[in-house]
Predict the structure.
Amino acid sequence: QLLAAPMAASASVASGLGLAVGRQPGRWVGGCLLVACGLLGISLRLAPFEMLNPDFEPSGSVLAVKEYARMAMVNGMAKSTEHHQVTQREPTAHTVAMFRTRDGSSIFDSPRLIRRIREIEDKILAFPNHDHFCKRDDMSNPPACEPPGSPLNFLYASNYSLGGETNITTPDRRGPLATPAIAAVRKAIRDYKWFPSLLEKDGQHTCHHEPHHCTAIRTVYTFAGPLQGFDNVGDRAEEQRRARLEHTQRLTKELLWPLAREKDSPIDFAFLGDDVWRYELSVYIQSDAMKTVGSFLLLLAYFWFHTGSPALALGGVVNIYLSFPLAYFVYRTLLGFRINGLTTMAMFVVLGIGADDVFIVVDTWKRSGASLTDGGMGAGFDVAQRAAWVLAHAAPAMAVTSATTISAFMTSVISTVPVIQQFGVFAALVVFFNYMLVCTFFLGVVVLVDTKMAQQQVRSGSAQCLWPGSRSRTSEADAQDQLEMSNGGSSAQSAASIYSNDPRKDSAARTQELRAVEVFFSDVYAPFAWRYRRVMLVCFGILVTVSIVVASRFQLEDKDDSMLPSSSNLAKANEWSDNLFPAMGASMINIHFIWGLAGMDRSHLNPSDPDNKGLVLFDPHFDLARDQEALLAFCDHIDTHPRFTPWIKHTNNDCLMDVFKTWREANGLAFPVHETYFQSAMEAFIEADVSGHVRHHLGRSNTGGGFYYVEHIVASSIPPGTHGKAVEDDYAFWDAHAREINSQGNFSAPVIQTCILWKDMARLNSLARTAVLGMICSLSFATACMLVVTQEWRLTLFATMTIASIVASLVAGYVIMGRKLGFMESVNLAIVSGLAVDYTLHIAHVYQHSPLKTRFGRTQEALRVIGISILAAAATTLLASSMLFACYIKMSQAFGATIFVSIALSLVYALGLFVPLLLEFGPIPAGGVEEEEALQEVPITGGLMQMSRESLASSFGGSFFKPSAPGDSPRKGTTLALVGQALAVVAALTLAAVILFFASDPAR
């Protein structure tokens, strides 16, 4: 009783809205168009459209924030932006060019190959405006770009005489090619420790050792700031970044891509870099986003096929598309988020999901023209009253299904990965506005089309029933029905009296009036499910049990997988970088202990901006002068205590204070230094550090205000390439040690320990948390909505069991296909409960409000009324998501496959598990029949034999929405029906094969 009042109130509000739309449909349609277009124009004016690449970092995680702060600190972003920096001296980005021989021959044994690589390198250096972004040589005058980090620098080295027999060799690319080249390589390997990082690592070939057979090398181009006209790298940083990115885009498009696509060159070429990754990925994302045009055309064709009206089909698709500018206005203008690659994938999903409500309105409008005994309004009502009746019956159920879908998408806000949060928010906004537009814009389109067709029929004198398929009943027949209703009580009671004894009564007459799919659900599938309901329950019970067992083996992702197919430049470059070359920058995983770093200020941060992680915060209590001895004791403790031996790669890690003490003692000076003289003593030590190594571990104020951080790096025993949960034990050990240090209180400020792997671990943990909490939240909300709609605990229990079974089967499918819990799996599992509830909820809603008195009759009525709508809704979602299979990005393909499988499972479980549960255990009204032995002998083919040829022809030979005309050829209709069924089966099998093909091998 408590739940009935809100439902009745919502139906009353919906009826009033429907009446208003029915009276002035043109104004509602035009008003919605104007509002949508106007808000889109305002959005583009105030916040221009900009698509960003998705950033999958967990920037909301504490571990990630610590690592961001450290990286910003090391890269100089923590420095004051008030001081002046020399133009193009501070490195800001890198691009790596990789070269590999196609025939496996050694590069250094062939002058022809060396000259070809030199030619490519020089083309990059000579690209227009490259000198405006490169890192400049400190020694050149006038300023010029320093040579890229390339092995060829040593092959084209210059020899300078210092007098007598003393010569010096400078790897400046200005000399002639060394002969033999292998001698120069041998000398570079001996004299420069970093040189082997540019060469292919030893594996199948011996590159770092004799005979130095190298089939691959790489060259590093360094871009630096501040750019010309800027004081430092922090001065209008966004403007500098955009200028550098535009240069990279031109370089990639005009030079690097053509070089990478050359097939006749003896050198295979690939390249990568942060800016390159962003640009190339954005190109693929925009290309994939254009696939929505294909989804648009598929939906338009299916709408036309279902309704038989091109105007309605266009109106349905426009309705869905209008929801995007409305959602964009809130998302971009009001919330300040920007569109990213993952947001575009939401368009494919919402295109399919948004069609569900369209079909519900269309089929409810069609049913409103039926007789009272068949659940319609009867004759004598105008379009405004029909519109009110349609919304009163359809809007509450659509509101609940939309709410469950919105709640499923909104569970993504619990994630610490911003792009997941933004994906959920945008998709939820689109679903909300789609629901509002269906109740206003699309209902107005339906009224306008119906009115127009009625006028045309009046002018032509046609005796056909008014569109869209009102049953061919006379007003006298409806009057008789109304008389029976008044004599027998309510319409529900009269309708119940008709079917309570035998649901098959007047089946031949009803078959003439129903569409083929309705006849199939009512007279074929319902008797089949009734007869084999217990067998179906046992089979699905076994399937669910097996799914749960298999799903329990689902694991977190243990490695990063490329987003792009192997044929792309980035995928090839990443594969080369991982398998051909040694790790750049470091051959070990370092643990960073930092005093003075407090974190980052993210209070005014736009989470949709992947380049803005926040402002670095320093601890004002940090005092390096006071912490001299404590820091020295910390370093000695790690190097000498046995407890650290399994966790570090080697002892004698560089310790700032230990080096400072050694330097002081070597110069006859005392240690520790008194706080009064510590600032000047440390300044002298820094100036004496010719290598500049100390500067990277110490933060020095530019205004003479002392030191604001100090860092100690420990080389851990974690093998390079370790990923995911494999580092949890290491994190627990080092985090416990940092907590122990802080608890002792020996330092002026707390220590922060961080590592680049902790950020990846936080990302995976966030994905797991998003998936689990998302499933729990969305399933709980779906259960609550089911209880509100059905107001019956057994229906709610059966629906919850069905949804949970769908989730278990989906996870089991992941395990069978070899997939692990990664980015897309987390998103899909969080939203699948909201997607899976729609079909089950609609069946339960019609079942609960059916006037019939038997389980079979109520289930049969539910299938007849709503079966065609959920089938059409599933078809549109499958069609829209199928376009993702044609996308270039593998993440989009995986997302499409998961949505496709989720919707297919939802339909199968709704019809195969939920329907048998209703037939066996479904609630019946007071006075209903518990046992239905009379229906035990219902032949499963009886309904199929009763499906008239005209009804089949209406499905595949004519309009799907309207029954066939009396003059249609029965033989032709039956033939087309069989052909259509065969094509449908072939299409389903083909799509299933495509899904299995892509899902069985993640590399595809």
